[in-house]
């Protein structure tokens, strides 16, 4: 069998508790010296062989998603094995470089990318998200909160940071299913505009606003952030959205926020960042897999790039908080909920989509846990004279809470 020399090299170089079966059965191949395998790989199609022999997270993920291989074992074990193969088994000249992407982000292509990711179905997301359907990093004040509690705490953490006051006008860029604007209107007395490019999100968020009787305080629009023209806004939030903007478009993105914001206003950018100082893609082929199957045209800047482009766009950063471990915890809870509802979710979508989301959620938890990606909240305001309304210390964020 062609795999035999490769398997022997794996035994000598990596020694992983993996057993591999060829599609027609026969003698299994072991990739290490062990009594019982932690992970079993069953090759179902010969086209999966090249993806195994020169592996990275993209090729391994592709083989699984496309049904070329089946994998048995716990998700933590599977992820550890995948990363070990990508790190140690791949020839040096086969490594995926962290190459800066330079996609052309147009209104049409961005809308298509957003709809590809978010319009799987509202019912699909409802199965594994919290009760308010918040699809972004939660905030764990103690670390033992439920997902529902932590997501509500995240929204309140953001709204306290921007010092939202009754009657103020809030724009939420990438409003999801409306959880933040609903909270802002109900508990902070704000007047809100939420925008999204997802048709499913727009439909459900509009329905939730109507159900809450808040049509006079909240407007949900199917709109690109570049097309918002009814300035000014007192506060602007962007939560889990700027990952779709593109590295070459960050300056005009922040400039648009600056244009829409009152001179004395505050904005919050909450988003995933790369841990590569050169803005490279996620290591070991992870970025390629995500671009191929999950977030088309998504690009992650390093926090240094975020701060420099934010300044170029006319904004000044006042408070920066790294919530990487919070997102690791969030993704772990999402993955656990996904696994617990696996059969229900599998019946809702095709097999390929189910496999994509299964490996994506678990893989994100691993990546955040191991500092391959991060999450930063950046509180900012228009550049210029210092506004006197922000307290001198951060104590105000936590007092009386």
TrEMBL record:
Residues 9-87 form the DUF7884 domain. GO terms for molecular function: methyltransferase activity. GO terms for biological process: lipid biosynthetic process; methylation. Pfam families: CMAS, DUF7884. Belongs to the CFA/CMAS family. PANTHER family: CYCLOPROPANE-FATTY-ACYL-PHOSPHOLIPID SYNTHASE. This is Class I SAM-dependent methyltransferase. It comes from Hydrogenophaga crocea.
């Amino acid at each position: 069998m062609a795999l035999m020399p490769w398997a022997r090299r794996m035994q000598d170089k990596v020694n992983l508790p993996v057993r591999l079966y060829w599609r027609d059965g026969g003698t299994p191949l072991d990739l290490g010296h062990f009594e019982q395998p932690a992970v079993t790989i069953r090759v179902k199609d010969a086209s999966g062989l090249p993806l195994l022999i020169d592996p990275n997270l993209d090729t391994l993920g592709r083989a699984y998603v496309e049904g070329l291989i089946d994998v048995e074992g716990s998700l933590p074990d599977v992820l550890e094995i995948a990363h070990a193969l990508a790190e140690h088994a791949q020839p040096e000249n086969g490594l995926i470089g962290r190459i800066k992407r330079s996609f052309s982000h147009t209104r049409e292509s961005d809308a298509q990318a957003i709809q590809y990711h978010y319009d799987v179905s509202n019912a699909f997301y409802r199965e594994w998200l919290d009760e308010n359907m918040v699809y972004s990093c939660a905030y764990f004040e103690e670390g033992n909160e439920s997902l529902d509690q932590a997501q509500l705490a995240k929204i309140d953490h953001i709204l306290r940071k921007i010092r939202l006051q009754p009657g103020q006008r809030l724009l939420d860029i990438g409003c999801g299913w409306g959880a933040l604007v609903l909270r802002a209107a109900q508990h902070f007395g704000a007047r809100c505009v939420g925008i999204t490019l997802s048709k499913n999100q727009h439909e459900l968020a509009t329905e939730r606003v109507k159900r809450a009787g808040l049509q006079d305080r909240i407007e949900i629009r199917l709109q690109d952030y570049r097309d918002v023209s009814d300035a000014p806004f007192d506060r602007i939030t962007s939560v889990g959205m700027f990952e779709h903007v593109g590295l070459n478009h960050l300056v005009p993105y922040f400039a648009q926020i600056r244009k829409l914001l009152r001179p004395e206003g505050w904005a919050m950018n909450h988003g995933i960042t790369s841990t590569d100082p050169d803005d490279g893609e996620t290591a070991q082929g992870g970025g390629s897999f995500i671009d191929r199957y999950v977030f088309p045209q998504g690009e992650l800047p390093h926090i240094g790039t975020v701060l420099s482009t934010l300044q170029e766009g006319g904004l000044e950063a006042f408070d920066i908080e790294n919530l990487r471990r919070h997102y690791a915890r969030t993704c772990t809870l999402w993955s656990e909920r996904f696994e617990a509802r696996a059969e229900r979710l599998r019946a809702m979508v095709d097999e390929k989509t189910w496999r994509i989301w299964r490996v994506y959620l678990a893989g994100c938890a691993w990546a955040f846990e191991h500092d391959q990606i991060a999450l930063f909240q950046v509180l900012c305001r228009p550049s210029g004279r210092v506004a006197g309304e922000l307290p001198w210390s951060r104590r105000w964020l936590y007092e009386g809470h």
